[in-house]
Amino acid sequence: MQSKETIGILGCGWLGYDLALKLKEQNYQVRGTSRNSEKLQNLQENEIKAFEIDITENKIYGDLQGFLEHLDALVIDIPPGLRKNPESDFAYRIRMLMRFVQVYEIPHVIFISSTSVFEDRKDIPEYDENSLPNAISNNGKKIIAAEEGIRKMAQKSTIIRPCGLIGEDRHPIKMLAGKSGIKNPDAPVNLVTRDHVNSLITKVITGEIDAPVIHGISEPHEIRKVYYQKAAEEFGLKIPVFEKEGNNLGKKIISMISIS
């Protein structure tokens, strides 16, 4: 079968690498980037053109031209790195990248953002795709600024905001198991499987979904203490113990877009 469009995935980590494999299976020409030599080798072994690219505070290292030129769509899935370096200017790095995206006239940019653009509150607000980002945290404000940079600089953009990512052996219960005094017992859980997010991205690429902003959520909005106690039992782990009383801070992420 003749190859379809050429898709670039900037950042082939846990989500992006799986996406690259899925797009390759669907006969797309796929290019992927990583800073990890083993991951680069894995991409090449799966016939995905691999590029070692690193976006620092003041320079982009690697063959950016070879990666970007003649792309039909670019998926940006790079971690902000704000936990390790809170002073990092993620939005500036995104704008620096987008200047090259403009030069190579990439028609569609898909940015994997985060639901941290929304503030947790005691009244547990609901946020859908029409809600305006309102984060006051350092991390949230920098991701909001990155989203704005992409919207302003891309020919066409799609912002995808996944909730907490789960899948295979990746699940937050593994960090919570056996712990006690865990806060926010009655706040809702906001989680999404990797398969769900990559299905959203694929449907955006094919044009089945055409929306400027998409929230990725696939798991039910159970309260934390109920959800994680069930998850501990399913994984055969020690049950976590939550605070019985105290303020609950949280939010409920809603998506108006269905992929069923």
Walkthrough of the structure:
This protein is globular. It is 33% helix and 18% strand. Strands 3-2-1-6-7-9-12 form a seven-stranded parallel beta sheet, with helices on both faces. A two-stranded antiparallel sheet has the order 4-5. With 260 residues, the protein is of the alpha/beta class. It has eight helices and 13 strands.
Present the secondary structure layout.
Elements (H helix, E strand, L loop, with lengths): L5 E5 L3 H12 L3 E6 L2 H9 L3 E4 L1 E2 L4 E2 L2 H5 L4 E4 L13 H14 L5 E4 L13 E2 L10 H16 L3 E6 L1 E3 L6 H4 L14 E3 H13 L6 E4 L7 H12 L16 E2 L7
Parallel strand pairs: 1-2, 1-6, 2-3, 6-7, 7-9, 8-13, 9-12, 10-11
Antiparallel strand pairs: 4-5
Strand content: 15-25%
Q: Radius of gyration in whole Å, from Cα? A: 19 Å
Q: Termini distance?
A: 27 Å
Q: Tell me, what is the CATH class?
A: Alpha Beta
Query: Oligomeric state of the chains?
Result: single chain
| Sheet of most strands | 7 strands, parallel
Q: State mean pLDDT (0 to 100 scale).
A: 94
CATH level-two architecture: 3-Layer(aba) Sandwich
Uncertain segments of ≥5 residues (pLDDT<50)? none
Order of strands, widest sheet: 3-2-1-6-7-9-12
Sum up the structure in keywords:
single chain, two-stranded antiparallel ribbon, 260 residues, Rossmann fold, 8 helices, seven-stranded parallel β-sheet
Q: What would a concise description of this structure say?
A:
With 260 residues, this protein is of the alpha/beta class. Helices cover 33% and strands 18% of the residues.
